[in-house]
Amino acid sequence: MIAARSPLVRWETPLWVGWFVAGVSLVAVVGFLDDLRKLPILLRLPLHGVAAGLLIAGGIRIRAMDVPILGVIKLGTFEIPLTILWIIAVVNFYNFMDGIDGLAAGVGIIVTGFLAYIAWKGQNTDMLILGVLLGGSCAGFVWHNFPPARLFMGDVGSTFIGFVLAALAVVGNQSEGPGHIPLSVPVLLLGAFLFDTVVTLFRRILRREKWYLSHRDHYYQRMTGLGCSHLQVTLGEYGVTFLLGLSALLYIRANQMLALSILCIWLMILAGSTRLISTLEKRTIRERDRNPSA
Predict the structure, then answer these.
(1) Mean pLDDT by 10-residue block, N- to C-terminus, for the chain (294 residues)?
(2) 3-class secondary structure for the chain?
(3) Domain spans of the chain?
(4) Out of 61, 131, 133, 186, which could bridge 169 as a Cys pair, Cβ 3.0 to 4.6 Å?
């Protein structure tokens, strides 16, 4: 292994980093080609699965789930399929969020900032270094992408960020000792857009719509439809993500009951916010029907 020396940290490059680079490079190439010429979903998803397989080949996989009250649940034979599902989901869900100026890059800074801090406290050097590198990349980009944007990341950027975040979560999950980070921590950090995407997909499936096609059913799109500016929606999401980060810091120090309570409270907040947006949309439609000339 190659030793990377620094006055601040000593890092021996793990063997899985080469596999990680191969996987994230594949995701970036697929995203770039998708930007140039739309690739069919039946091609993109399997290639994302191959990228996940490369990470698994390097020994990185979700080995257990830390569930409040229930404790640690070993996954056994489900390690590989759940790891592949997790990575494909986060890659594509994060791509769905890249539909408004500054949103994906700014959230990436906040999420990686909290993950890097948690990794630093737990002395998880692998996660710390990768998190800082991704956060720095997002910070350099958001300067040009903040509303009104002068530069857009495209699928090559959003899927790249999604893959790295998904990989960071798996690295933290399989680490042992003080460096172990339950998968529920990154899930909590990414909770706003994960919840929105799952709800949106289920809604479209129930309506018998083609869920994989472009649409305007995500919360940030619906909020702009209600009259909010891109800047307002982006800053609002930054605020929610920062609060989720503070909750994640509390979560990793909480006892089982408090940890479960944090997850339940955020689930109710996100569900209530989705319901509020629907109510406002219906009210707006009624007002337009009453005043068609307005």
Answers:
(1) 45 76 94 90 93 92 85 87 94 85 90 93 86 91 84 88 93 81 91 88 80 71 82 90 95 90 94 88 77 61
(2) CCEECCCCCCEECCCHHHHHHHHHHHHHHHHHHHHHCCCCHHHHHHHHHHHHHHHHHCCCCCCEEEECCCEEEECHHHHHHHHHHHHHHHHHHHHHHCCCCCHHHHHHHHHHHHHHHHHHHCCCHHHHHHHHHHHHHHHHHHHHHCCCCCCCCHHHHHHHHHHHHHHHHHHHHHCCHHHCCCCHHHHHHCHHHHHHHHHHHHHHHHCCCCCCCCCCCCHHHHHHHCCCCHHHHHHHHHHHHHHHHHHHHHHCCCCHHHHHHHHHHHHHHHHHHHHHHHHHHHHHHHHHHHCCCC
(3) 86-283
(4) 186
Q: Which residues of 52-89 are buried (b: 16+ CB within 10 A; e: fewer)?
A: bbbbbebebbbbbbbbbeeeeeeeeeebeebbbebbbb
